[in-house]
Design brief:
The chain has 189 residues and is of the alpha/beta class. Helices cover 49% and strands 22% of the residues. It comes from Desulfovibrio desulfuricans.
């Protein structure tokens, strides 16, 4: 079912890309003297761009939302922020697989904090919610003065507590939550 949805989504993107290219070709024929490319070249570049985006979308670990794809005369330019050099290399390989690609310019910036999948975001959000709920249940602690943030399953506590004991207690409560890898305790008394 998951593969069927992904295939349908890729087909939809491809179809929309073709429709856009066709409508743009009609507009281009009216003002063809202003275009640096012929309508055929523009159409080919639009098809290449759509195919590259589809390849990127279909590849686990890559997000077509964070990778911009532009094509001019068959040369694909990839730009945006991506989380690892390996994913950057993978995006280039996915672009090179497309028929008609004459070259790939890799302008991707590797930034580990730039990409977080929906699943990772949901996991972090649910950990944050669980930590806040458990702190609220704990006698003597209040979530009004304690801020909880989670990134990659690492919980950061900040704010103010009444005592060093309450600060340590809040950290222990956070560590007990399922999925927490580590707790950074920045609480002040």
């Amino acid at each position: 079912m998951k593969n069927l949805c992904a295939d349908l989504f890729v087909a939809l993107i491809f179809t929309l890309g073709l429709a856009f290219a066709m409508s743009t070709m009609q507009d281009a024929s009216a003002a063809s003297n202003d275009l640096p490319q012929t309508a055929g070249e523009y159409f080919d570049d639009s098809v290449i761009t759509t195919a590259v985006k589809s390849n990127i979308l279909g590849e686990k670990g890559l997000s077509s939302l964070s990778i911009n794809v532009e094509t001019k005369d068959g040369v694909v330019t990839l730009s945006g922020k991506i989380d690892t050099a390996a994913h950057s290399d993978l995006a280039v390989r996915m672009a090179k697989k497309v028929n008609g690609v004459n070259g790939v310019v890799n302008n991707l910036i590797v930034d580990a904090a730039a990409h977080q999948s929906v699943g990772e975001y949901v996991d972090d959000a649910s950990i944050t919610a669980a930590v806040k709920a458990n702190i609220l249940k704990e006698k003597g602690l209040s979530t009004l003065n304690i801020s909880v943030e989670t990134k990659d399953n690492v919980v950061t506590l900040s704010g103010k507590t009444d005592s060093p004991e309450h600060s340590r207690l809040a950290a222990r409560v956070a560590k007990r939550v399922n999925g927490v890898k580590a707790v950074v305790n920045k609480l002040k008394e």
